[in-house]
DNA sequence: CGCTGTCATGTTAGCGCTAACATAGTTCTA
DNA sequence: TAGAACTATGTTAGCGCTAACATGACAGCG
């Protein structure tokens, strides 16, 4: 009990920022009224509200959202966890999420797992620690501990990209069916020998699902479904290498079904450099419906996946849930569309 | 004073999550010791630390980072504010930032201004409200109020993409010089009539700076520097439209200097569809050094900007500052490189 | 042996805000 | 005109954590 001296009282590193209390003092109200004027203005008299807002400007108040979040046990964060930022597909989903959430005053907390579900688990822990309002993850595969966390966190959990046994909310498309769809198209076009080319199918397992669908259709038609797996994730360069590898390993191939448009476009451009005639000498198909494919000559046959829409719909469902409305349809199939170009 | 009944005492929505106090109880220590075991393990006895970590696992503790942040007035957020997620350029900068920060346990708080500096201002307020550790913005242009906030917030502020009169830290490249560089290249190649094609130069003002450099060189050589401005931001489609507009407005044009690679690649692909010979009938140049340009035939002449490196270097400088080290060189020019393809 | 220094841990007091309850004034209703 | 219902504002008690200070045990030293 040594400090009777009030000037030597216990001091925290008081940030110099003005607090709500000071705003309240400046407006001549209590701090709860100032709080209400900012957060639930309809519960405060018009006149009072004006005085508070004036005071806010006068003292240069910036709300301490951390304190507000602790007191209310709510934040306005949405955790978004994707496996990669190198892939345009995830970016476009993020764009859809971001546009919808930011319009409602939510912020995106972005995490990147690098296709590692252990890192996903760590990110989920961190984001839960920030009391995020909801979590969005790309895909349905998680570590058991992570599933557990997500299941018991009592917040909306949205799994996007693919459909299946989801934890809670689910917006995506049926990748197996997309693979079947393209395989059928290739058969209809009369191609007899088709190779599927993917990249790192252990990581990009959705491309693996598409291959499963592809193989299913091919085998039902009595054909083989050879697979070539590249060791670098989708890129124009990898696609070029894929074309070379197919021509070497299966010289009589009539069509290549690429796991995505980056690979397919890379192959198309490489074929052009080689003077290869597409589709006469070899047909090429992709997946995603990136803009690039539609600007090539020949235009790329591909499957359009509605990525930004997927993000937007996911965000809307989450917002509905956060507004306390029950979400009836927890699973939402955004579908896809076969875009037939001249490359097949 | 009506509630003497202890069972009816004032209740907060106590989240069911275990708290540090429960961990401490389970480990038989005080909560501050548990806190130290997690945050500054070197200040706790080996034995005790082990007991605490065990207890953490046993009760399934997830630290409440909001509370920690309020108590310590520090968060591990880095605010990153970009004008668009539709542009690959910003994505790659974000990737560089993200990889570096996430490795050090910092999270990215992502904001998108949609090229609107008023929205930027609002985002800066929000992120400051979250006690972010540092802020990264794309570009040097802000509203006066926003400059003011950034200048007085007492946190590292990093402006990336371009160089100039920065508020604090600055990593980028000299866009005017890049414009000059390409203009000189076109002159050296002997093209006499060159048009610059940009998109929304009021928003993408860095493309405007490149045009300034371009015009400077052209005028110094006694040539005109006509400009065509498209009304949609960079895309393959806009580039195709740009080519058409140049051929209509300036039929004798020998070279087009596009503001970026998306436009240039769109024009190249469109020219190919039209049967136009590049560069004999018309030469095409871009800016950014996107992978696509190097896979086209002819390869696109462009300027390589080290985008991921920019993000990485920005992150490293901020981390150095956050570690308490003085940053000596507050401005860092990452430079650029002229990539000469066959399109000029 | 008393003094100082170091280590490990504990006590106390907030961080800045909002939920829950309280209160006073006003309007509506039977 | 009593009292119910509503409006506007205030008082109090935390949210879960950590900074600052306090304490006690023990080692080193002249």
UniProtKB/TrEMBL annotation, chains A, B:
Does the keyword Transcription regulation feature in the UniProt annotation?
Answer: yes
Q: What highest taxon heads this organism's lineage?
A: Bacteria
Q: Which InterPro entries match?
A: HTH_LacI (IPR000843), LacI/GalR-like_sensor (IPR046335), Lambda_DNA-bd_dom_sf (IPR010982), Peripla_BP_I (IPR028082)
Gene3D superfamilies linked = 3.40.50.2300, lambda repressor-like DNA-binding domains (1.10.260.40)
Question: Transcription regulation: present as a keyword of the record?
Answer: yes
Which parts of the sequence belong to the HTH lacI-type domain? 18-72
Q: Where is this region: Disordered?
A: 1-20
What GO molecular function terms would the record report?
DNA-binding transcription factor activity; transcription cis-regulatory region binding
What keywords appear on the UniProt entry? DNA-binding, Transcription, Transcription regulation
Protein name per Swiss-Prot or TrEMBL: LacI family gluconate utilization system Gnt-I transcriptional repressor
């Amino acid at each position: 009990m040594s400090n009777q001296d009030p000037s030597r009282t216990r001091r925290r590193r008081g940030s110099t920022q003005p607090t709500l209390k000071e705003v309240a003092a400046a407006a001549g109200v209590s701090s709860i009224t100032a709080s209400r004027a900012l957060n639930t203005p309809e519960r405060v008299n018009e006149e009072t509200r004006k005085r508070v807002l004036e005071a806010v400007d006068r003292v240069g108040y910036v709300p301490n959202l951390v304190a507000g979040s602790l007191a209310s046990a709510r934040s306005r964060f949405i955790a978004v966890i994707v496996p990669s930022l190198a892939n345009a597909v995830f970016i476009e989903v993020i764009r859809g999420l971001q546009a919808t959430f930011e319009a409602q005053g939510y912020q995106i907390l972005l995490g990147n797992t690098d296709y590692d579900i252990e890192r996903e688990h760590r990110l989920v822990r961190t984001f839960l620690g920030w009391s995020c309002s909801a979590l969005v993850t790309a895909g349905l595969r998680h570590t058991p501990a992570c599933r557990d966390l997500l299941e018991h966190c009592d917040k909306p959990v949205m799994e996007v990209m693919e459909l299946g046994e989801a934890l809670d909310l689910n917006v995506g498309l049926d990748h197996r069916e997309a693979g079947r769809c393209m395989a059928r198209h290739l058969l209809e076009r009369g191609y007899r020998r088709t190779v599927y080319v993917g990249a790192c199918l252990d990581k990009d397992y959705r491309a693996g699902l598409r291959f499963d669908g592809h193989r299913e259709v091919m085998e039902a038609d009595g054909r083989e479904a050879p697979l070539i797996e590249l060791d670098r994730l989708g890129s124009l360069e990898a696609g070029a290498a894929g074309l070379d590898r197919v021509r070497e390993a299966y010289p009589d191939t009539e069509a290549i079904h690429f796991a995505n448009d980056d690979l397919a476009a890379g192959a198309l451009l490489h074929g052009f450099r080689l003077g290869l005639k597409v589709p006469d000498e070899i047909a090429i198909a992709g997946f995603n419906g990136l803009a690039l494919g539609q600007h090539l000559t020949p235009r790329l046959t591909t499957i359009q996946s509605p990525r930004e829409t997927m993000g937007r719909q996911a965000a809307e469902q989450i917002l509905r849930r956060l507004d306390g409305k029950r979400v009836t349809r927890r699973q939402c199939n955004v579908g896809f569309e076969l875009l037939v170009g001249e490359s097949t």
